[in-house]
Amino acid sequence: MAIHLPNVLARKIFLERQGLSRSPTKALGRDGLYALIHDLGFVQIDSIQWVERAHHQILFSRNQTYRPKDLAHLLEKDRSLFEHWTHDASVIPSAFFPYWKHRFIRREAKIMENWAKWQGEGFDRAFEETYARIRDHGPVMARDVKDEDHKSGGWWNWHPSKTALEYLWHTGKLSIARRDGFQKVYDLSERIIPAEHHAGEVDHDSFVDWACRSALTRLGFATSGEIAAFFDLITPDEAKLWVAAHRDELEEVTLGTVDGKSRISFAFVDQLGSLIEAPEPPARIRVLSPFDPLIRDRNRSERLFGFFYRIEIYVPEPKRQYGYYVFPLLEGDRLIGRIDMKAERKAGVLAVRRLWLEPGVKPTAGRLDRLDAELQRMARFVGMDSVQHLDGWLG
């Protein structure tokens, strides 16, 4: 008979697995930062800096002693982290690079089939030339290899060398050496990825086993579909077959969801004891990035927290329910609302435009004090002098 995980326990387990039950004030440092990212599995990168870029905010929401310069050091000096793709662009431990080689192979086949449709026949003519240029002359940015007479445009209008750079990156031949104004600087992977990781090889079965085990450990409990989607490295069928083949190691659990429906998932038998003893998360309010891994799987967050969230940056303004870039609010083990705010850098203020609390969540004095404390922390982190509440921000 499946073990039942009440909703409040399921939430605590997932929060603990996602690094949100740790002390947010314990000194992190570079070693602690690496350990945090390793435990999370990856941290998504995004260029939007409405308040702070997603990867920095994801890490800061877990530990307020996080400093972006430490992340830059791990990426650009130690090379213990590298940038590549999960479900989106992400920071990933370099120790995982041998497993990503399987993704490179799978991605290459899709690129050659799909990119030809929008780039046209012969789109790959610049691949070897671009690779040779970087091999012989060192790192480049896309603008360094742009044809002088090429007009800028969206992804559908990439110049041949830009297409080559992205192809060579997606297939693992190039890696990101650093960012310059958030623009990628490309170099050969063997010059970026530490030799012990670049040379590492794993067979297909070991790759699938690692991907499934790593995902389930970081999720705490999951369906086979959730396991496959975590890193987006393997197919749902591969995850389903892995679950079937390892049932002796897995415990079937039912989740208490907010809608009362039973949800069958799996957890490792030898981890279940520690999962059930998941600690209480800090009671403080934290502002999460729209790309935070806690809410990346929207269906999972809705089942566990009863929190419906969609980012509306691509929604026409008249059709937005909330705003362009609205941040979820976590209090203890509950997602209690969302806030619309922006770092107005010229004025030096974190401007709070609007607060929406979930049904049943009251704007008590204590809660608003905790929110203000978090906003003050956020303002200091992004270099703002103060927090400014605009008229009507409380609704």
Helix share bin: 40-55%
Q: How much strand content do the residues show?
A: 15-25%
Tell me, what's the shape? Answer: globular
Order of helices and strands: EHHEHHEEHHHEEHHHHHEEHEHHEEEHE
Mean pLDDT: 92
What kind of sheet is the major sheet?
A: 5 strands, mixed
Poorly predicted segments: 149-157
What is the C-alpha radius of gyration, as a whole number of Å?
22 Å
Treating each run of at least 4 consecutive H or I residues as one helix, how many helices? 16
Structure summary, number of beta strands: 13
Strand order of the largest sheet: 9-10-11-12-13
Structural class: alpha+beta
Task: Give the distance, in angstroms, between the N- and C-terminal Cα atoms.
Answer: 48 Å
Topology:
Blueprint: E1 3-5, H1 7-17, H2 29-40, E2 43-44, H3 54-62, H4 68-78, E3 81-85, E4 89-93, H5 97-119, H6 127-137, H7 160-170, E5 174-180, E6 183-188, H8 189-192, H9 195-198, H10 204-219, H11 224-231, H12 236-245, E7 250-256, E8 262-268, H13 272-276, E9 285-287, H14 293-296, H15 298-305, E10 326-331, E11 334-344, E12 349-357, H16 365-381, E13 386-389
Parallel strand pairs: 1-7, 12-13
Antiparallel strand pairs: 2-4, 3-4, 5-6, 7-8, 9-10, 10-11, 11-12
Helix pairs in contact: 2-4, 6-7, 10-11, 11-12
Question: What's the short version?
Answer:
With 395 residues, the chain is of the alpha+beta class. Helices cover 42% and strands 19% of the residues.
Explain how this protein is built.
With 395 residues, this protein is an alpha+beta fold. Helix content is 42%, strand content 19%. The protein contains 16 helices and 13 strands. The strands form 4 sheets. It has a 5-stranded mixed sheet, covered by helices on one side. Strands 1-7-8 form a 3-stranded mixed sheet. Strands 2-4-3 form a 3-stranded antiparallel sheet. The longest helix is centred in the first third of the chain and has 23 residues, at 97-119.
